[in-house]
Amino acid sequence: MKTLHVDLGARSYPIHIGSGLLDRPELYADRLRGRQVLIVTNVTVAPLYLERVRAALEDGHEVESLVLPDGEAYKTLQTLETVFDALMELRFNRRCTLAALGGGVIGDLTGFAAACFQRGVDFVQIPTTLLAQVDSSVGGKTGVNHPRGKNMIGAFHQPRLVLADTDTLDTLDDRQLRAGLAEVIKYGLIRDAAFFDWLEAHLEALLAREPGALAHAIEVSCRTKAAIVAEDEREAGTRALLNLGHTFGHAIETGTGYGTWLHGEAVAAGMVLAAHLSERLGWLPAATVARIERLLERAGLPVTPPRGMGVEDFLGHMAVDKKAVDTGLRLVLLRGIGEAVLTQDFTSEQLRATLDRALAGA
Amino acid sequence: MKTLHVDLGARSYPIHIGSGLLDRPELYADRLRGRQVLIVTNVTVAPLYLERVRAALEDGHEVESLVLPDGEAYKTLQTLETVFDALMELRFNRRCTLAALGGGVIGDLTGFAAACFQRGVDFVQIPTTLLAQVDSSVGGKTGVNHPRGKNMIGAFHQPRLVLADTDTLDTLDDRQLRAGLAEVIKYGLIRDAAFFDWLEAHLEALLAREPGALAHAIEVSCRTKAAIVAEDEREAGTRALLNLGHTFGHAIETGTGYGTWLHGEAVAAGMVLAAHLSERLGWLPAATVARIERLLERAGLPVTPPRGMGVEDFLGHMAVDKKAVDTGLRLVLLRGIGEAVLTQDFTSEQLRATLDRALAGA
To answer: Per the CB < 8 Å rule, is A118 touching B91?
Structure first.
């Protein structure tokens, strides 16, 4: 087991990464402050891991569970309300803890419920997808989608613990694994060229789920994420770099209907769009763009936007994205592999031309 | 105009109290950071003040408004969703500001919407009821009700500005004015015996809406609130004293259906229950309890719980109140006028006996 730390003063917390962690009561025990625990999970994950987590928590805690439907389409205020209903029904108090057992949807939704219930209770993240283990479970971004925009309603609320049991990836379907790899590749692109090289060399091992390769990829990803979050918890600066591909990606997710494309798939296509716009600005040579596309393609990820979306669809959804501020749309672009920048140094014509060309190829 | 400050480091903000403040653009201007402003108000307040506030804000800002139904019954997740819908429809970005124009319901709901929209945007409080001016607009407690419990879903999110225009109290109906006086009296009870004396001497002036008396009462109340919030923003200790009468009061509000009793009315009856329990513990002489009841009665406030609620109704609702923690129910009780304490030093029998006696007299 490797343990990393997100260093946020009194709100610091550990990330444990390794095999067989779900069953270890001592990993939870010293991070839980109250007696009541509600495990929130979904219909896919519950049959696999709910009882194991419950057993590990049961000693010394009153453990209840709530099983939600699976998928991005359920990351809504309506589902959030069912979590509140359960907490009220169970008469949970402000010293309770919510445990998010599942992927990014469960983690984001459960974390947001914890942020709001009685104006804030504890929560722990037990991510069971690669995407959640390398990205969404770390850093305290929580929330739900609005029909018109992804993650538009939410809070910054840090977990008390992240427990990434790599064994859970054994039950992940291939499509989910690949979606997670999009976020892993993102870390290489934004600030770790050596890791990008390593990913090029070890992609087959990752796709074959070799435990050593997966553990290394998760650890490097979490280390980068933890460092960036410690530096800029509320996304005043650096943290925005983690949104590489996300403004385009959120437009794809909203435009195609939540759950049609997986988040990681949309981010993959979004990163390619960011690379193309960077190329158009003369920041990235065509060969580097091709290298990025090739790695994503090898990972089985989409490198073109969805058929059926037009330039105006993209621009409409992108204008409501959180990266848009009074002064105009800002995007994370690339000045090289491992060198992402948040910038407004592009014209709307350049953005349109980039989308036009990509959509023509879709 | 008097200006007080809530001292919270980078999140400090002014409270302006006085006559004719709504129309003064300069009071808003230096506290608004973005260009977009959404004024959230209700059908009662909009015809009276919306255009004046809009006019004061319009110079330099894009001002929109949303008019909600009036009343505690609408302080719900469903109403919150209509605020998000409006913000998305208007394509408001993360640099926008929400302006809460109204009483406690509008302030709590709008503040919570601001806390969650794009994970947190600015908001300002323009309270138009006595209760909101002396209590709910200051301190950053925001939220909505759950059908089973008052204020169960919310966030701590500080406003950028509180603008208490005392002229707005001219249009307040008597019942609302009296409900506000309950919270004013509360400040005397919890830590300002001299203010309690002053209230006894000036209650008729307050009921007659003498501007000097009202302004003094608002200023003293806000000064106490600001000091307590600065000391304990997240209610780890002292701030809980502000909940005198509220655990009983929330049980009344939830038990009778939100909006049947006004919040201040429920708090008045709740403070009397707290005084009775304090008397039963030997902490408060009967004469002091009578003095408290007399002042509340003179203010036209209820001093007995609602007919129709039983002891079990109270205990059921109180158990889910936020003041209940793992270790049992804690209540704010009185050791004297101006001397409130948060305590568990009572037995459930003493609590039951207090409720029994009060309900027999209801």
So the answer is: no
